[in-house]
Every structure is written in structure tokens, then in C-alpha cells.
Amino acid sequence: MASKLKALQSKACQASQFISKHGTVYYKQLLEKNKEFIQEPATIEKCNLLSKQLLYTRLASIPVRREAFWKELDHVKQLWRNKQDLKVEDVGVAALFGLECYAWYCAGEIVGRGFTFTGYYV
């Protein structure tokens, strides 16, 4: 166990050194490649305008997303009505999806408790 910890520390140290050497170059390349999305001058007023545009654009998209949700829910209801026609693959995918949702829920609970493994899951 101690040797694995040392190996992990060594890898983390190597990764940190790589990032410290090449991180600035990557950052500059990233900004250069995406400069069309950068607002100049970056003033507080411009940032406030962009944040309001994002908020109201998201609010305007709610009806479209609501409609898509109900359409998907109708599709699931239709599948449930015809459950005798379901294939094993479809049931397997649904089960894996449910298991993944549960796993993300458990991970969120653990993170919310400060990465402690006490409580309901022990």
C-alpha cells in the first residue's frame, strides 16, 4: 500500500512539473484559438450585460426544454404500455442508467459530507 502511495505521489509530482512548464503555453494557445469569444474591453458593464443575456436566454429556452421533456415522458409511457415488446438490451440499458443515477447520487452525498464514509452507506 505504501509503495502504491509513493508511486501515486511520484506521478502527481511529474504531472505538476509538466503543467508548470507547459501550462502557460497551453493557456496562451487556448486564448488565441478562442479569441473570437473574448469581449474587449472587459468592463464591468459588458460582463453585466453578458450575464443578463445568458440569464434571459436560458429563461426563454424553458418552454422548448419543457416540451422536449414531456415528449420524452410520453415516449417512456408508450414503452411502459408495450413492455412485453421490450428487448433485453433496452431493459439492460435502462437498468444501467438507473444504476448510474444512483451512483452519482451516492457520490454527491459523500462529497456533501466532506468525503466521509459515515451514515447511510456503511
Automatic annotation (TrEMBL):
Family: Belongs to the ATPase g subunit family.
Record GO terms (molecular function): proton transmembrane transporter activity
Protein name: ATP synthase subunit G protein
Presence of keyword Mitochondrion: yes
Main location (coarse class): mitochondrion
Any one of the GO BP annotations: proton motive force-driven ATP synthesis
Signal peptide range: none
Location of the protein in the cell: Mitochondrion membrane
Source taxon at top rank: Eukaryota
InterPro entries in UniProt: ATP_synth_F0_gsu_mt (IPR006808)
Lineage: Eukaryota, Viridiplantae, Streptophyta, Embryophyta, Tracheophyta
One Pfam entry name: ATP-synt_G
Keyword DNA-binding annotated: no
GO cellular component, one term: mitochondrial membrane
UniProt keyword terms in alphabetical order: ATP synthesis, CF(0), Hydrogen ion transport, Ion transport, Membrane, Mitochondrion, Transport
